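Work Package 3 (structural annotation) set out to generate three-dimensional models for the target panel prioritized at the project kickoff. During this period the team completed the workflow that converts sequence records into C-alpha cells, so that structures can be stored uniformly alongside our sequence database. As a representative example, we reproduce one entry of 171 residues exactly as it appears in the project archive.
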Amino acid sequence: GTEEGVSRFDPKSKKFESIASGANGLSGGRVCSIRGGRDGTIWLRTRDGLTRFDGKLFTKVQGVPAIDQSSIQAWTGALAIDAGGAVWTVTQNDGLWRISGTNVQPFLPTDGLITTFQDALSISGKEIWFFESDRAQRRGLTRFDGEKFESIDSDQLDERSDVTAILCQTN
C-alpha cells in the first residue's frame, strides 16, 4: 500500500504496476492495511473504505465508513481476517465492522462496546482483540468471543498511552 494507491511487483518482468486510489474500483486515499484471505481474495483498507480484490477486479465494499484523514486509523487501518474468512476493520467513531460474504455488520456500544473508537485489531483462534478509547477517557482492551464483548480495564497503562498494535498468540 502507498499514500495514494497500491503497487504490485511482477517478479518475471521485475517491474512495479501502480494502481491509484479511486481508480479501477480501489477506494480512495492512503492504503492503510492489506490482508489476504485463504480464498485468494485481497482486502485493502483505505481512508475512504474497504476494497476487495479477487485477482481481476477491485470492488468497494458498500457500507463501511471512511476513516478521518487525521485519525490514527488513517495510519494503521486495522484490518484482520478470522478463521471463518470474515473480515474485521475499525473506523473512527463508527464502531467495529465485520464483513462476511455480502453481510456488512457494524458493532456499536449498544452491542457491548465501550466506545465507537477502536484500533489495534488482532485475532487469535475464535477471539477478536482490539483497543477502545474515546475523549471521555474510557479505555480498554476488548475481547469478542463470537458471542459477546468483554472489556478489560486498562488502568495499568500510562494515561498518555494508546495501544496501537496487539499480537495474540495461541499456545
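The radius of gyration is 16 Å.
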